[in-house]
Structure formats: C-alpha cells, structure tokens
Design goal:
Layout lengths: L1 H10 L5 H6 L5 E2 L2 E4 L2 H6 L6 E4 L2 H10 L19 H25 L7 H14 L4 H8 L4 H24 L2
Antiparallel strand pairs: 1-2, 2-3
Length: 172
C-alpha cells in the first residue's frame, strides 16, 4: 500500500500528503483530480487550482486502496477525518511518520534509500525537467506562485545529484 500511495503522490503532480488526505471523489472532474494546495490557500492572495490527469495507474491505485466512489467520500481511507484543524494536523503528522517509516522499508528492499513522501514530489518535478517539460508547466503543477520558486526548487535537486555523483567519484 505504501508503494502505491507513493506512486499516487508522484503521478498526482507530487501532491503534498496533507492535500492527498483531503481529496474527495468530488475532486475528480472530467478525468482530472482538481484541488487547491492547503499551503498556497493560506499563504497567497492568488489561489490557483491544480489539475492532475487521472492516469490508468492512479485509477488502479484508487480501485485497490480507495473508499467507495461517492462524491462526499474521501478517496483514500488513510486517516480518520475530522473538521478539527488541530486534530487533523496531529493525525496527518502521525500518518506522515508511519508512511515514511514504511516507504523506507519498501525502498530499502529494492535498493533505494532515504525515500520519503516528499521524494515523490521531488521525483515528479525532476523527471519532468530532465525529460524537457516546460518549467512553467512544472511550476503550475506543483502549485508554485512563481517560476523563480520552481527554479530554486529544481536547482536544489540538481545540486543534490552533483554532490551524490561527486561522492561516487571518490568511492574507490
């Protein structure tokens, strides 16, 4: 299940776990998952809807792990939902901790170390950049309000990659 949820995060524009936990079937509109990032909703005047095409893989993950597809149902039964913001935050934090512990076990089994929910977001952005996607598209998909933010975000991954490769050169 943790591998599938990681993949769903990746396919869904690197959706943040807090946003993933809030997705309802009513967020699926015309073959896309449409949502507003909770972080952006709180920190910017211009709130933009993010749209992620609902792929065959995403549909299969929902079929395998999702709730009954009714408009008011949350897509995934990953935590007990609540309208209490503080309680939701505690449950989200506990889920992230459990998720990251388990995804690291999955990753280690296949030789991938230091994997977390956030690396799905990194991977989404990095893969698109390396395959030549337009930075503006990546920025919009991540829910960034500025191309500059996206450029800094992507550059940090490239630096990590350079540092990792430099260590490989010294490992003889």
């Amino acid at each position: 299940m943790y591998r599938d949820i990681w993949m769903f995060i990746y396919f869904c524009n690197g959706i943040n776990i807090g946003d993933l936990l809030c997705l309802k079937f009513s967020n699926i509109v015309d073959g896309e998952i449409c949502f507003i990032r909770k972080k952006t909703e709180r920190t910017t005047k211009t709130v933009k809807e993010i749209r992620a095409t609902l792929t065959k893989n995403m549909k299969e993950i929902i079929r395998r792990w999702g709730n009954e597809p009714k408009p008011n149902n949350y897509i995934f039964p990953l935590i007990v939902q609540t309208n209490d913001i503080e309680l939701f935050s505690k449950r989200k934090k506990a889920f992230v901790k459990t998720f990251n512990k388990n995804i690291r076990i999955v990753g280690a089994a296949v030789g991938i170390f230091d994997i977390t929910s956030y690396t799905a977001r990194h991977s989404f952005a990095t893969v698109l950049k390396r395959k030549g996607s337009n930075i503006a598209f990546i920025s919009e998909s991540l829910g960034h309000t500025s191309l500059n933010t996206t450029q800094i975000y992507l550059d940090s991954f490239e630096k990590e990659e350079r540092e990792k490769n430099a260590k490989l050169l010294e490992d003889f």
